[in-house]
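Q: Please design a sequence for this.
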């Protein structure tokens, strides 16, 4: 719906980029001066495409990300935990819708983006292709997955594209509640019985490495980083954010009495950072190519939900059309 108010079509941006280096220089100057780019401003076609790619992948991640947690709604151990989890999952749905709206300001419709997801042509975060086997996994998603998401998304509040940057402010506030509820679940388990502590340790062992993969490939293998950093879409590289996450999380794990499943983990006193062992990038690429433990299950569930919601979309469209027709008739009668 937001696409209707755009005065710029995607092709004109590309053509102008080829023809007009002055426009490109002006665009880069605006970015360097920290002035936001807004939907009706001229932008290079590649800037627009990068944003559509990243924002839509982000939106899909929020929507698919509801599934691993939804799996535990009926089995949350208390009413309080169930209410928190419900609220959190609803927040994720809201983030997805917010982000689809931000993508729409770039001239692509939400329907088009959703079709790409359902057809298996769009990416979403690798992390949501892992199963949630125990209640401790819900704690790990909050503490680690949302913790990693916040580390990546706080800098996006300063992204050069105005609608994305503004959307991220609300998203990050809610994510910080999510991270705390996850940490609280893990802390409770760690202060509980030996079986509960073992459940937390087992979950950490399954989530630790996939969480480090969330930040994307190493900088040398990150094809989009250079341009995204020049355009201030990204403010920190994948490796920098991953390192910040490890530095913040290792002391938390120690406080909880949990062991990070990395025999090579060490503190580099000269650099002042924790250094991890090697990440299994074969696993990462298998997951993002559709061959993770739950990829097929996640897409099948999403397609089913989309189909089951068809009548709601049709009813909403019919209702809106009826009201628009009534308003048009009233305006014609008054004229
Ligand atoms: N999962 C899936 N694909 C990934 C990935 C991941 N964790 N990390 C990188 N990739 C993909 C990229 O999308 C790109 O593929 P493409 O060319 O087909 O689009 C390829 O791997 C190369 O990676 P790059 O580093 O060059 O890509 P980017 O510059 O886009 O960086 C990113 C990747 C850091 C994830 C960046 O896109 C980003 O910051 N995105 C916004 C945040 C986001 O989407 N987070 C997802 C999690 S949301 C979430 O966790 C919800 C919360 O409620 C828990």
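A: Design:
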């Amino acid at each position: 719906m937001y696409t209707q108010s755009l005065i710029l079509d995607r092709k004109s941006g590309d053509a102008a980029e080829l023809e007009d280096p002055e426009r490109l220089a002006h665009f880069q100057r605006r970015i360097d001066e920290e002035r936001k780019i807004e939907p009706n401003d001229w932008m290079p076609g590649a800037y627009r495409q990068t944003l559509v790619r990243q924002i839509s992948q982000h939106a899909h991640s929020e929507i698919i990300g509801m599934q691993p947690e939804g799996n535990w709604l009926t089995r949350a151990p208390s009413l309080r935990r169930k209410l928190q989890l419900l609220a959190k999952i609803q927040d994720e749905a809201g983030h997805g819708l917010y982000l689809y709206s931000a993508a729409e300001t770039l001239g692509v419709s939400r329907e088009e983006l959703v079709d790409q997801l359902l057809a298996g042509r769009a990416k979403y975060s690798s992390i949501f292709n892992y199963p949630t086997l125990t209640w401790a996994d819900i704690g790990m998603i909050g503490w680690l997955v949302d913790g990693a998401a916040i580390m990546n998304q706080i800098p996006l509040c300063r992204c050069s594209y105005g609608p994305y940057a503004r959307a991220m402010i609300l998203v990050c506030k809610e994510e910080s509640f999510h991270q705390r509820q996850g940490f609280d679940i893990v802390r409770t388990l760690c202060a509980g019985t030996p079986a509960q502590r073992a459940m937390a340790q087992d979950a950490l062992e399954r989530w630790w490495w996939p969480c480090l993969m969330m930040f994307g490939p190493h900088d040398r293998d990150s094809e989009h980083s250079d341009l995204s950093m020049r355009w201030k879409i990204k403010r920190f590289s994948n490796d920098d954010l991953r390192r910040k996450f490890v530095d913040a999380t290792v002391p938390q794990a120690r406080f909880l009495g949990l062991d990070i499943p990395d025999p090579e983990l060490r503190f580099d006193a000269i650099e002042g950072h924790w250094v991890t062992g090697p990440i299994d990038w074969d696993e990462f690429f298998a997951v993002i190519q559709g061959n993770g433990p739950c990829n097929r299950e996640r897409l099948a569930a999403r397609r089913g939900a989309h189909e089951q919601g068809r009548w709601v979309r049709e009813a909403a469209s019919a209702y809106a059309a009826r009201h628009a027709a009534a308003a048009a008739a009233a305006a014609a009668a008054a004229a």
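Q: Thanks. Anything notable?
A: The first strand starts at residue 266 and ends at 268. Residues 53-54, 57-58, 61-62, 65, 92, 123, 125-126, 145-146, 149, 152-153, 213-217, 222-225, 228, 238, 288 surround 3-hydroxybutanoyl-coenzyme A (CB under 6 Å).
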